[in-house]
C-alpha cells in the first residue's frame, strides 16, 4: 500500500443524496498528512462534510503516530478533581465523596466547568461507556469520583492497551463495528469527547447511542460547530476542519437535529486558545494578514488567555460540550 491517503466520493451521511458541491479545498495544517482535501455541501439537506473522503482502508494514515490523543501523556484532559468544582458536583450531580471546596468559585463557573469536562450525574453502580476512550485518562478520572463499572471502545490498540493496563474494559475496534453488538438499554452514561466529527456517519452512531442507553440515561459529548466566531472568521483555515480527520462539519442546527431523541440539559463552550493561535498561524503561512499577526501574538499572552475565556463564556467558541438525557419513557411511535 502506498502511504498516501486514497479518497472516495460518497453520498451525504445524513440524507443519502449523491448530489453535493465542493465548498473549498485545504491541506492538513496540523500534522502535515499529504494530500488536498475537500469540504462539500449536500445540495439536498445542506450538511457540510468531507467529500471525497479517505477510504476505510487508508483512514489510519490520517492519524500519524504523533497524534496527540493517542499518546500516553493525556492525563490533563481527565475530569478535574479539584475543590473548585466540588460544590456543584456534590449538590447537583450527587457525588458524596468529593472533597469540600477549598476555594469558592461562582456557581455559573462551576456549572460551566462540569459541563465542559463531561462529568455525568453520579449513579451508584451506574455503567459508563466511553466511545473513543483513548488511553483511559477520562475513565481514570471517573474512577476517582466513585464510578466502578467503566467500559470503553477505542480504535487504536496501543492506546486501548494502556487503558486496559489501568484495569478498564476497553475493547479495540471501530465504533461502527463494536456498538451494534451492545444489547439495548445497557448503559447509564455514554461519553464521546470529540469523536462524532471523526465518524463517517455520526447520525447512525447517535441512533445506536440512544438504543444502548437505559431510559433516563445521559449522553455527554463534545464536538465542534462551524457557525462559531472562529469558524466564520478563518474559513478554510479554521482549526475545526482538521483535514483529513474530520468527516462532518456541524453547525448548531445540525447538532440539535443529530440529538433530537435527547433533551439537552446543559451546554458549554470550551476555552481553547490553541485554536485561535493555530488558525492565525496557518493563514499567515499562506497569506500575509495583519489580524493574524496580532492574534498570533496575543494568543501567547495572559490577555489572550482571558479573551479566549470570555469568548467561551459568551458562547462564541467552536468547541461545545453537551449534557443530554434520553427520555425516561420510550417515545411510542404512532
Ligand atoms: Zn444531505
Secondary-structure map with pairings?
Elements: E1 7-8, E2 20-26, E3 37-42, E4 48-50, E5 53-54, H1 86-92, H2 107-116, E6 127-131, H3 137-144, E7 149-154, H4 157-165, E8 169-172, H5 175-179, E9 187-193, H6 202-212, E10 213-224, H7 229-234, E11 248-249, H8 252-258, E12 262-269, H9 273-286, H10 290-298, H11 302-313, E13 319-326
Parallel strand pairs: 6-7, 6-9, 7-8, 9-10
Antiparallel strand pairs: 1-5, 2-3, 3-4, 4-11, 10-13, 12-13
Helix pairs in contact: 1-2, 9-10
This protein binds zinc ion.
Structural write-up:
The chain has 334 residues and is α/β, with parallel strands linked by helices. α1 crosses α2 (107-116) and α9 (273-286) runs antiparallel to α10 (290-298). Strands 8-7-6-9-10-13-12 form a 7-stranded mixed beta sheet. Helices cover 29% and strands 22% of the residues. It is built from 11 helices and 13 strands.
Amino acid at each position: 500500500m502506498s502511504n498516501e491517503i486514497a479518497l472516495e466520493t460518497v453520498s451525504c451521511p445524513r440524507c443519502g443524496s449523491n448530489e453535493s458541491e465542493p465548498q473549498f479545498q485545504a491541506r492538513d495544517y496540523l500534522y502535515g498528512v499529504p494530500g488536498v482535501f475537500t469540504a462539500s455541501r449536500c445540495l439536498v439537506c445542506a450538511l457540510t462534510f468531507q467529500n471525497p473522503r479517505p477510504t476505510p482502508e487508508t483512514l489510519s494514515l490520517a492519524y500519524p503516530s504523533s497524534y496527540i490523543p493517542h499518546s500516553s501523556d493525556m492525563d490533563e484532559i481527565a475530569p478535574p478533581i479539584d475543590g473548585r468544582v466540588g460544590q456543584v458536583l456534590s449538590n447537583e450531580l450527587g457525588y458524596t465523596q468529593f472533597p469540600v471546596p477549598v476555594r469558592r468559585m461562582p456557581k455559573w463557573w462551576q456549572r460551566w466547568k462540569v459541563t465542559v469536562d463531561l462529568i455525568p450525574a453520579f449513579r451508584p453502580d451506574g455503567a459508563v461507556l466511553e466511545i473513543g476512550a483513548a488511553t483511559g485518562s477520562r475513565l481514570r478520572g471517573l474512577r476517582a469520583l466513585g464510578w466502578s463499572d467503566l467500559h470503553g471502545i477505542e480504535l487504536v490498540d496501543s492506546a486501548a492497551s494502556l487503558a486496559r493496563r489501568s484495569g478498564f474494559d476497553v475493547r479495540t475496534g471501530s465504533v461502527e463495528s463494536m456498538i451494534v453488538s451492545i444489547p439495548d438499554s445497557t448503559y447509564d452514561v455514554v461519553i464521546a469527547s470529540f469523536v462524532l466529527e471523526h465518524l463517517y456517519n455520526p447520525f447512525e452512531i447517535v441512533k445506536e447511542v440512544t438504543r444502548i442507553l437505559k431510559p433516563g440515561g445521559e449522553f455527554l459529548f463534545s464536538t465542534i460547530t462551524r457557525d462559531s466566531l472562529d469558524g466564520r472568521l478563518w474559513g478554510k483555515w479554521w482549526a475545526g476542519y482538521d483535514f483529513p480527520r474530520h468527516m462532518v462539519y456541524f453547525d448548531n442546527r445540525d447538532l440539535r437535529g443529530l440529538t433530537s431523541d435527547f433533551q439537552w440539559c446543559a451546554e458549554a463552550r470550551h476555552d481553547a486558545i490553541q485554536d485561535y493561535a493555530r488558525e492565525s498561524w496557518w493563514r499567515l503561512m499562506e497569506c500575509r494578514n495583519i489580524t493574524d499577526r496580532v492574534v498570533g501574538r496575543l494568543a501567547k499572552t495572559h490577555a489572550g488567555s482571558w479573551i479566549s475565556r470570555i469568548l467561551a463564556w459568551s458562547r462564541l467558541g467552536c468547541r461545545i460540550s453537551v449534557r443530554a438525557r434520553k427520555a425516561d419513557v420510550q417515545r411510542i411511535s404512532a
